[in-house]
Design goal:
- There is one protein chain.
- By secondary structure, this protein is α/β, with parallel strands linked by helices.
- The protein folds into 4 domains: 6-39 and 192-340, Molybdenum Cofactor Biosythetic Enzyme, Chain A; 41-63 and 157-191, Alpha-Beta Complex (Molybdopterin biosynthesis moea protein, domain 2); 68-153, Molybdopterin biosynthesis moeA protein, domain 3 (Beta Complex); 350-422, MoeA, C-terminal, domain IV (Beta-clip), CATH 2.40.340.10.
- 20% of the residues lie in helices and 30% in strands.
- The protein has 8 helices and 26 strands.
- It has helices at 6-12, 23-33, 174-182, 221-232, 246-259, 277-284, 321-339, 394-398, and strands at 40-43, 57-58, 68-69, 73-76, 87-95, 109-113, 125-128, 132-135, 138-141, 152-153, 164-166, 188-191, 195-201, 205-206, 217-218, 235-242, 262-266, 285-291, 294-295, 299-307, 310-317, 350-354, 365-374, 380-384, 401-405, 417-422.
- The two termini are 34 Å apart.
- The mean pLDDT is 95.
- The chain binds adenosine monophosphate and magnesium ion (MG).
Length: 427
C-alpha cells in the first residue's frame, strides 16, 4: 500500500492549519502518515525484551498442565465435608511436586500433598497443613473451615491450550518473556526494529572533544534523543552534528534516508531561521512545516523523504533541549510506536494537586516540568522544578514528569488537580 501524501492527509483533517496546529491535530496527522513496518524476525525469549509481537502466540499446552495443589497440606474430596461438622480423614499416601501419587483414594481418605504436586484422581480440595490436627495417620479439619475446590489450581487456569496467550502488537516485557518460556516455546515472531537516524544541525553546535568557543554550545540533543530511541527499542544511527551548509546537509539527509526508516533532526526549523535545513528538507521530500499551539516546542517539520526508492519518515524537531524532549514524548514516541507495530494505549496521565498557581491561557497545550510526591496528607502533589525555560535541561533531570495543561484549560489554582505525564520507564 502506498503511503498517503501530506496534502491528502491535511485535506482529511478538520481544521488543519499548519500555522496553529493543536497537539491532537499533530497526533491525528502522524497516525495517518506512519505505515507500520512489515518485516518479521524470530527471536528467543532472551532476545525478546522490548520487541513487538508480529503474530498471536497460541498456547501449545495448558499451563499448568494438570490440576495441582496451591499449598502444602492434605488433598481430599470436598464431598467428604459436611456443614457444621468436622472432617476426619485417614492419610493413605504422599504426592510430591514432580512425583505424582498414583493410588486411589476412597471416601474418608486423604493424601499428604506438596505445593505444585498433581492432584490425585478424584480429589479436588486441599487443606493447608497448618490448619489441621494430626494424630497418628489421621487428620482432623475443623467444621466449616473450607469449601470444596479450595487451594487447588486448575489445569489451564493460566493459559489454555489452543487459545492466544499473547496478542499481535504486544510489546514484550519481562512477564511476557517468561510467559513465552512457560509455554515451552524457543522463539516468537516479532517485527523488525525500526532504524532511526539522528543528527543535530547548527553552526553553533559543538561535538564532544571540540574546544569551546564563544557563542557555541555543546550538543546535548543528540544524547537525549539517542537515549530515548534506545529506550523505545529502536536501532539508532548516530550521524553526529551537521553544519549549516547545503552540501553537508544534502549528503546527511540522503545517507540517512538511504539506511533508515525514520530521520530525526534537531534545530533549524524555527521561523526566520537563516539556515539551509528547511530548504534542504523541502528539496528532498514531502515535508510540512508546522507551528504547533504548544509550549515548549512550537516549530516542527514533519514529512517523508524518498531515497533509492525507499520511503523514510522525517521529524525535524526544534533546537531547544527541553523542546526536543517534549516534542519527542508528545509526538515522535507515539509515531514510532505505530511504526514498530506496538499497539500501545495512550500514555496514562497521573492526577496530582499543584502546590502553586499555574498561569495558563486557553488555546495552547503547555508542558511544565514537575516533581510529583506523596505528601503527608496521603495525596499526590506536584511542584514545579523552577525555571521553565525551554533550554533548561537541568529541570528535566530534576523532574519526574511533565504537567500537561491541555489546550482549552485555563489557569490552575494552587490545590487544583492537574494531569502529569510521568517519565518513569520512558526517560
Ligand atoms: P534553533 O531551533 O536552531 O534556532 O535552536 C534553538 C536553540 O537551541 C539555540 O539556542 C541553539 O543553540 C539550541 N540548540 C540547537 N541545537 C542544539 C543541540 N543539538 N544541543 C544543544 N542545544 C541546541
Ligand atoms: Mg539553529
Amino acid at each position: 500500500m502506498s503511503a498517503p501524501s501530506l496534502e491528502s492527509i491535511a485535506e482529511r483533517l478538520q481544521g488543519y492549519d499548519p500555522q496553529t496546529l493543536t497537539v491532537s491535530h499533530v497526533n491525528a496527522f502522524l497516525s495517518q502518515l506512519v505505515q507500520p513496518l512489515r518485516d518479521v524476525e524470530s527471536v528467543s525469549p532472551l532476545q525478546a525484551p522490548g520487541r513487538v509481537l508480529a503474530e498471536d502466540v497460541i498456547s501449545p499446552i495448558n499451563v499448568p498442565p494438570h490440576d495441582n495443589s496451591a499449598m502444602d497440606g492434605y488433598a481430599f474430596a470436598g464431598a467428604d465435608m459436611h456443614p457444621g461438622q468436622s472432617t476426619v480423614l485417614r492419610v493413605v499416601g504422599t504426592a510430591l511436586a514432580g512425583k505424582a501419587w498414583s493410588g486411589k483414594c476412597e471416601s474418608g481418605e486423604c493424601v499428604r500433598i506438596m505445593t505444585g504436586a498433581i492432584m490425585p484422581a478424584g480429589l479436588d480440595t486441599v487443606v493447608p497443613q497448618e490448619l489441621v490436627q494430626v494424630r497418628d495417620d489421621h487428620v482432623t479439619i475443623a467444621a466449616d473451615l473450607l469449601s470444596p475446590g479450595e487451594n487447588r489450581r486448575l489445569k489451564g487456569e493460566d493459559l489454555m491450550q489452543g487459545l492466544p496467550a499473547l496478542r499481535t502488537g504486544t510489546r514484550m516485557g519481562p512477564a511476557a518473556c517468561g510467559l513465552v518460556a512457560s509455554l515451552g516455546l524457543p522463539s516468537v515472531k516479532v517485527w523488525r526494529r525500526p532504524r532511526v537516524a539522528y543528527f543535530s544541525t547548527g553552526d553553533e553546535i559543538l561535538s564532544l572533544g571540540e574546544a569551546p568557543r564563544e557563542g557555541a554550545v555543546y550538543d546535548s540533543n543528540r544524547y537525549t534523543v539517542l537515549a530515548m530511541l534506545e529506550r523505545l527499542g529502536c536501532e539508532v544511527l548516530d550521524m553526529g552534528v551537521v553544519k549549516d551548509h547545503p552540501e553537508l546537509l544534502e549528503t546527511a539527509f540522503r545517507k540517512a534516508a538511504h539506511q533508515a526508516d525514520a530521520i530525526i533532526t534537531s534545530g533549524g526549523v524555527s521561523v526566520g531561521e537563516a539556515d539551509f535545513t528547511k530548504a534542504m528538507m523541502k528539496k528532498l521530500g514531502d515535508v510540512a512545516f508546522w507551528r504547533i499551539a504548544m509550549r515548549p516546542g512550537r516549530p516542527m517539520a514533519v514529512g517523508r523523504l524518498q531515497e533509492s526508492g525507499r520511503d523514510c519518515l522525517l521529524f525535524g524537531l526544534p533546537g531547544n533541549p527541553v523542546a526536543v524532549m517534549v516534542t519527542f514524548m508528545a509526538f515522535v514516541r507515539p509515531a514510532l510506536q505505530q511504526l514498530m507495530g506496538w499497539q500501545a494505549p495512550p500514555l496514562p496521565l497521573l492526577k496530582a494537586r499543584t502546590t502553586e498557581r499555574l498561569r495558563k491561557k486557553p488555546g495552547r497545550t503547555e508542558y511544565q516540568r514537575g516533581i510529583v510526591e506523596r505528601q503527608s496528607d496521603g495525596q499526590l502533589w506536584v511542584r514545579l522544578t523552577g525555571n521553565q525555560g525551554s533550554g533548561v535541561l537541568s529541570s528535566m533531570v530534576q523532574a519526574n514528569g511533565l504537567i500537561v495543561l491541555h489546550h482549552e484549560q485555563t489557569t490552575a489554582e494552587s490545590g487544583d488537580w492537574v494531569d502529569v505525564m510521568m517519565f518513569d520507564g520512558y526517560l
